[in-house]
Design a protein that fits this description.
about 375 residues; Quinone Oxidoreductase, Chain A, domain 1; Rossmann fold; seven-stranded mixed sheet; six-stranded parallel sheet; 13 helices; binds NADP nicotinamide-adenine-dinucleotide phosphate; Zinc_ADH-like; Enoyl reductase (ER) domain-containing protein
């Protein structure tokens, strides 16, 4: 809808002509712009019980902002780390979560390209539009350095938004900003994987399942690992060629070497961190890529021998911090072209947000855990 203008001039001559050019005042639009939101915030980063629901004032949109009615939010392991005090750089009493999809309900006067009713998702770091990350850009990460998305309404800078692909629901689109863009940046970042490459994904959580889907869609052979044979069967249906249960086969690195005929894996999506890095280096091919993403296997492992081990195999060890809005748009084009749907394990209501956190913490899930925020 057009922007509304109220004139106090008498309606004569020029002003009458101008009035014909501007869209009519739509009082229902003005009335429907909320001045308050309902949001969660972390009162103390000491556990999920410290997620508190409150009503909060909603500042009017700035001229460069877009007001979004949030329909769905997805959780990432990072949100557990934040609420339990294990996430560096968290602001005081933050509104948690980075991922959302929603509907534009108003646009600032300088905004181009967005209009009321558009379906949008936001980039993880709102100012990471393209190029390398900087401290200043990292400090615009939602649900960390700045307030996040677990709220009914939120203003976003217009440049942070991407259009939601038509084939995705709001719940599906809300899974993309952190996990899917991270997987994309790992596998299709500065040196993209090639068809025929082998990709190993660790476990069946959010990042790994997106990496599996992206790698399979790009023509790679995927080795999926998991603690669960039931989850591995889901990975197989999603396109994994080889399956390794890392509980039953603790030397999964040796198994991966065997599966690649001794050559090793081209790209390892390393979400375990210090606890899995040694085996990832063993499983990788000479000159292969180990994408440093997560720390789910714990952080208290002695890594002192690993730099030499990487050197001897000319391993490319690359750290990934989510990604840019441009990468998000590239990802969406692949999802549209191949009609890929994100894997949602379970959807919780806004009021059940703490249960959603508990479910993610239990690691019973495959793919993503979603909170449906809007009732309609
Ligand atoms: N650097 C970045 O930009 C970035 C972005 C997103 C996420 N991350 C990090 O990446 C990690 C994954 O995040 P997420 O949101 O995808 O997590 P998630 O959905 O909570 O993933 C949980 C799953 O990881 C698997 N897992 C746990 N411990 C494992 C281990 N020792 N070895 C192999 N797999 C293991 C398990 O799958 P199974 O039950 O199938 O074994 C578990 O269900 C987290 O550490 C997160 O902080 C980093």
């Amino acid at each position: 809808m057009g922007k509304t203008h109220i004139s106090t001039e008498p309606l004569t001559g020029t002003s009458l002509r101008v009035l014909r050019l501007i869209p009519p005042i739509c009082t229902s639009d003005i009335m429907s712009i909320p001045s308050k939101t309902t949001e969660y915030y972390i009162s103390k980063p000491q556990g999920i019980d410290n997620l508190i629901l409150r009503e909060a004032p909603l500042a009017p949109s700035k001229s460069t902002e877009v007001l979004v009615k949030i329909h769905a939010v997805s959780l990432n392991y990072r949100d557990i780390a934040a609420v339990t005090g294990n996430y560096p750089g968290l602001k005081d009493e933050p509104v948690p979560c980075s991922d959302m999809a929603g509907e534009v309900i108003a646009v600032g006067s300088e905004v181009k390209g967005w209009k009321k009713g558009d379906r949008v998702a936001s980039n993880f770091a709102v100012d990471h539009v393209h190029g390398e990350i900087t401290k200043e850009i990292k400090d615009t990460s939602l649900g960390g350095a700045i307030d996040g998305t677990l709220t009914r309404y939120k203003n976003f800078p217009a440049h942070a938004l991407v259009r939601v692909p038509e084939h995705l629901t709001y719940e599906e689109a809300a899974t993309l900003p952190c996990a899917a863009v991270t997987a994309w940046n790992a596998l299709l970042g500065p040196v993209p994987l090639k068809g025929g490459d082998t990709v190993l994904v660790q476990g069946t959580g959010g990042v790994s399942i997106f990496a599996l889907q992206i790698a399979a869609a790009m023509g790679a052979t995927v080795i999926a690992t998991s603690s669960s044979n039931v989850k591995l069967q889901i990975a197989k249906k999603l396109g994994a060629t080889h399956l390794i249960n890392y509980k039953e086969t603790p030397d999964w690195d040796q198994e991966a070497l065997k599966l690649t005929g001794g050559r090793g894996v081209d790209h390892i999506v390393e979400i375990g961190g210090p606890g899995t890095l040694d085996k990832s280096i063993s499983a990788a091919r000479y000159g292969g890529w180990v994408h440093n993403i997560g720390f789910l296997a714990g952080v208290n492992t002695d890594l002192s021998g690993l730099t030499l081990k990487m050197l001897h195999k000319a391993i490319v060890y690359r750290s990934v911090l989510v990604g840019t809005r441009y990468q998000f748009e590239d990802l969406n084009r692949l999802l549209v072209a191949r009609q890929i749907h994100p894997v949602i394990d379970k959807v919780f209501s806004f009021e059940q947000a703490k249960d959603a956190y508990q479910h993610l913490l239990s690691q019973k899930h495959v793919g993503k855990v979603v909170i449906k925020v809007a009732k309609d």
